[in-house]
Amino acid sequence: MKIAFGSDPNATEFKKILFDYVSAKEGIECTDFGSDDPIYANVAIEVATAVAAGKFDRGILICGTGIGVCIAANKVPGAYAALVNNIYQAQRAQLSNNANIITMGAQVTGIEVAKMMVDEYLRCTFDPASRSMPKVQRICDYEKEGK
Fold first, then answer.
1. Which whole number is the average pLDDT over 98-105?
2. Is the Cβ–Cβ distance between 93 and 99 less than 8 Å?
């Protein structure tokens, strides 16, 4: 599995810890899109574009609260970012919503909780035969309508 990481400068150390944690897992290849740009939307858009294009299987974005990078990533067609604050949300981001990106806040999330959220998110796979599929499909259809 290929994972794209990005953050704003405020979340650099948090991202580095999480990046190293995920990179150490067998079968996972991580790429760091950086954290130098103070305009968090730039790295969020870059990661989201790469994930939406299929260059990466999933993305992980981090800023102070996780809100800004989530909003920015969701502006990219084909990117479906979910802000996660707990393990259940990380699970449901994938199982219920087929989110290809999760976002979190370095200033509001402890690093050990972040590791558990990422573990759960990466462990889960969306089932297109699930009862969530019609809901996810409506989002995709609306995006294609270009409205």
1. 97
2. yes
> Residue with structure tokens 């730039």?
42
d(CA 135, CA 127): 13
Q: pLDDT tens, 16-68?
A: 999 999 999 999 999 999 999 999 999 999 999 999 999 999 999 999 999 99
Q: Which domain holds residue 20?
A: 2-145
Say how far apart CA 18 and CA 16 lie, in whole Å: 5
Which residues, other chains included, contact 57 with Cβ-Cβ below 8 Å and sequence gap of 6+? 1, 2, 3, 51, 100
Using one digit for the tens of pLDDT, what is the confidence trace for 116-136? 999 999 999 988 888 888 888
Active site residues: 63
Per-residue tokens: 57? 């299987």
Whichever domain contains 81, its CATH number is: 3.40.1400.10
Domains held by the chain: number: 1
- Strand, helix or coil for residue 82: strand
Q: What is the pTM of this model?
A: 0.94
Cα–Cα separations (whole angstroms), residue 76 to 33, 38, 87, 139: 16, 19, 25, 13
